[in-house]
Design brief:
The protein is an alpha+beta fold and about 475 residues long. The protein has three domains: about 170 residues, Glutamine Phosphoribosylpyrophosphate, subunit 1, domain 1 (4-Layer Sandwich), CATH 3.60.20.10; about 180 residues, Rossmann fold; about 35 residues, no CATH class. Helix content is about 30%, strand content about 25%. The strands form six sheets. The protein has a seven-stranded antiparallel beta sheet. A six-stranded antiparallel beta sheet has the order 5-6-7-8-12-13. A four-stranded parallel beta sheet has the order 17-20-21-22, sandwiched between helices. The two termini are about 30 Å apart. The structure holds guanosine-5'-monophosphate, iron/sulfur cluster and magnesium ion (MG). Magnesium ion binds next to loops.
Length: about 475
């Protein structure tokens, strides 16, 4: 999960990117970077930490130029370190090049091996760097053709921004797994993971960058290329459920309205008699509003979130995560005491959040707790750029509803069905034939693993090679002949 933002032709390009990254901070808190193209080629700054901590006014001033791209990162591939922060910037035979990538390339390890044999020297362990090296060895005459040649070799999800001395290029994989939107700010072009960043800088939302589109922006204007074979698009359904901000338009629809619709379907499928509906804030709010409206029950704030701590899931250490729930959420005793409560969350991953919340609510005297989840059970890891854990850590991959309910200590537990989720998506404007990736709920991965491996094979190779996290195919070196 990452956020990317770019602007072309603006006097204060780096300032705008800085603001854009602020709006995208929810997509990654580990590191952040800005690369700007000015009279001295491309200059950049990257650092670990939150956008508000990384940049100062002085620094932004130094990043002078009229086009810029930026990135906020939550690592899904490669280790946590500054060398993996983006934008990655290189000087190659055709000038300067910076790249910001959201997604995950599932054949990156094989490509990297091949490139290293041929003499490429990598500066990071991220999958994104493979694209740069593939572009560097291309014999094509212009940047777009070099990029097309590189992208034809990669397999996986990408929403990309590429900055050169005179161009900004936005690209999206043929499946359109991760979002990317285009906007206009007077004479400037803006591109962002989510439209909420446009609202902040006063830019107008124009459209999505289409799946499989490569959009070249230069001083002469913009031009679209569609070099890939058309495939059925597979927008990530989890963007709606959890990742994107509710005030964003993602894949052409309002995230807020989809979340509400998910809550409504959840109510239709799983309602029980109760006194009130409360969300686990912030991610459960949209669905809880939809649920409460559907069944005409009061929507109450039974839990208050401390906004000055990051998302608990973000902290990689198990210990910190456990502590995190308490740091983040506190029940309102007066609201919940003696009440029968429907608690809504957007998803259950490891079930640590729900378990702690239920314990806190019970300690405050809640009479009954009916836990409702506005997405189906997460049973499979994501290989396309989102940090859902390995199968082992996903509670629903190895436990049934009864066991999870018991572990969480809730009186009842129900999830939204896959069909209910699809109904909510269709009701909020998906046209016929619109398709989503829902692999973390169904195991139906739209893209093949490296060398056509199955998930079982990927996991067993990872185990044999002692790779801690098989979602990082970057380090799974396949032993079979690659094709
Ligand atoms: P759990 O405590 O069950 O492991 O995680 C569930 C909570 O984490 C939910 O409240 C949900 O909003 C959030 N969440 C779900 N999936 C993800 C994810 O992939 N990444 C992050 N950062 N948070 C998630
Ligand atoms: Fe999104 Fe899940 Fe598909 Fe990953 S596996 S792209 S999180 S729907
Ligand atoms: Mg949450």
């Amino acid at each position: 999960m990452c956020g990317i933002f770019g602007i072309f032709n603006h006097k204060y390009a780096s300032n705008m990117v800085y603001l854009g990254l602020h709006a995208l901070q929810h997509r990654g808190q580990e590191s952040s970077g800005i690369a700007v193209s000015g009279t001295n080629g491309i200059v950049s700054h990257r650092a670990m930490g939150l956008v508000s901590d990384v940049y100062t006014g002085e620094l932004i001033k130094k990043l002078s130029g009229t086009s810029a791209i930026g990135h906020v990162r939550y690592s899904t591939s490669g280790t946590t370190s500054l060398s993996n922060a983006q934008p990655l910037v290189v000087e190659y035979s055709h000038g300067s090049l910076a790249i910001a990538h959201n997604g995950n390339l599932i054949n990156a390890s094989i490509l990297r091996q091949k490139l290293e044999v041929k003499g490429s020297i990598f500066q990071s362990t991220t999958d994104s760097e493979v694209i740069i090296h593939l572009m560097a060895i291309s014999k094509k005459k212009n940047t777009v053709d070099r990029l097309i040649e590189a992208l034809k070799k990669v397999n996986g999800s990408y929403s990309l921004l590429i900055l050169t001395d005179s161009e900004l290029i936005a690209a999206r994989d043929p499946y359109g797994i991760r979002p990317l939107v285009l906007g206009k700010l007077k004479d400037s072009y803006v591109v962002s993971s989510e439209s909420c960043a446009f609202d902040l800088i006063g830019a107008e939302y124009e459209r999505e960058i289409n799946p499989g589109e490569i959009l070249l922006i230069t001083a002469q204007g913009s031009e679209s290329f569609y070099p890939f074979k058309e495939v059925k698009q597979k927008n990530c359904v989890f963007e709606y459920i959890y990742f994107a901000r509710p005030d964003s338009i993602v894949f052409g629809r309002s995230v807020y309205l989809v979340r509400k619709a998910l809550g409504m379907e959840l109510a239709k499928e799983t309602h029980v008699d109760a006194d009130m509906v409360i969300p686990i804030p912030d991610s459960g709010i949209g669905a809880a509003i939809g649920y409460a409206q559907q069944v005409n029950l009061p929507f109450e704030l039974g839990l208050i979130r401390n906004h000055y701590v990051g998302r608990t899931f973000i902290e990689p250490e198990e210990r910190i995560r456990h502590f995190g729930v308490k740091l983040k959420l506190n029940p309102v005793s007066e609201a919940v005491k003696g009440k029968r409560i429907i608690v809504i969350d957007d998803s259950i991953v490891r079930a640590t959040t729900g378990r702690k919340v239920i314990k806190m609510l019970k300690e405050c005297g809640a009479k009954e707790i009916h836990f409702r989840v506005s997405s189906p059970p997460v049973t499979h890891p994501c290989f396309y750029g989102i940090d859902t854990p390995t199968r082992k850590e996903l509670i629903a991959s190895s436990h049934d509803l009864k066991e999870i309910r018991k572990y969480m200590g809730t009186d009842t537990l129900e999830y939204l069905s896959v069909e209910g989720m699809m109904r909510a998506l269709m009701k909020t404007g998906a046209h016929a034939g619109y398709t989503f990736c829902d692999a973390c709920f169904t195991g139906k991965y739209p893209l093949r693993f490296p060398c056509q491996m199955t998930l079982d094979e990927v996991e067993s190779i990872a185990k044999r090679k002692k790779v801690v996290d098989p979602r990082k195919p970057y380090i799974i070196v396949d032993t079979r002949r690659s094709n």
